[in-house]
Amino acid sequence: MNNLQTTIDSISFVNYTTNTLHTQMETYIQNNTLTKHKIETNNSMNKYLVKENNQVIFDYRTLINKDGLVSNIINFNGLKTYNTDLDNNRTKHIFSLLEYLSIKCNLSKWDIRQIDICTDINTTNDKVIVQKDKVRGNRIDKLITDISTKTQYIETIKNKVKNGVKTLDRSNMMMSAYLCDKTHKELVLNNNIDKDITRFEVKLLPRLLKKIHSIKELSNELNKYHVKLFGTRNKCNIQKRLLQPLHSYS
């Protein structure tokens, strides 16, 4: 029997104001013996990585629109790796940073901008099928796969090029899901892992969260995805062949 573990892997918060977070962040970073690294800057945006012992804890950025309104965005990524100390440390800073900004700095209005929910399965990804309801588009045999990261994307995602680098463009999407070989990713990060793990992850993107007003509505969106596990690779392949004419991905 496969063990399943569902948790939050990433979460992003946004605060709308007329001031940037630079002074408040500098104080928090110094008080917690962290370091700040600027990774991107232009006339309307500054983005920073915040690290502890050379490990990224979170990143934050400020966006300023033409009317002078500031969007302060904080991202906590990789909350569920297989480095327990790092996972716990990142989670600890979610609470301590938001408490500091809300109470000490009087920046109490923080909205969840994006949240990634993952399910880890103790099996290889060639024994798993993901289906999505009420969509049209790519058939199961046309699933987009990134060979280098051993990741299969459930939806069709357009590419964009920024500063000469090609990335995935999810700006017009509400949800995005993928299936990946989590064991491979952990070994690339030099985290010790001695078992096969497949991760199914759903990204709840800003366009979706702006229109969700209840847990029921959120559940209805998540219930569009169905994860099927098989005991052998052969059984999984047979099911894929049966499903190809009937089901599709968007």
Give a written overview of the molecule.
The structure is a single chain. A ten-stranded antiparallel β-sheet has the order 2-3-4-5-1-6-14-13-10-9. It is globular and about 60 Å long. The protein contains six helices and 16 strands. It has two domains: 10-115, Double Stranded RNA Binding Domain (2-Layer Sandwich), CATH 3.30.160; 122-250, no CATH class. The chain has helices at 22-31, 84-104, 182-188, 206-209, 215-222, 233-243, and strands at residues 4-17, 35-41, 45-52, 55-64, 70-76, 111-121, 128-132, 138-139, 144-146, 151-153, 158-162, 165-169, 175-181, 198-204, 225-229, 248-249.
First-to-last CA distance:
31 Å
Spans of at least 5 consecutive residues whose pLDDT stays below 50 are: 137-142, 245-250
How many strand elements?
Answer: 16
Oligomer: single chain
Give the overall average pLDDT: 84
Q: How many structurally independent domains?
A: 2
The structure class reads alpha+beta
The main sheet orders its strands as 2-3-4-5-1-6-14-13-10-9
Major beta sheet, specifics? 10 strands, antiparallel
Helix content: 10-25%
Written as H for each helix and E for each strand, in order along the chain, the element string is EHEEEEHEEEEEEEEHEHHEHE
In percent, how much strand structure appears in the residues? 35-45%
Q: Note the overall shape.
A: globular
As a whole number of angstroms, the C-alpha radius of gyration is 20 Å
The number of helical elements comes to: 6
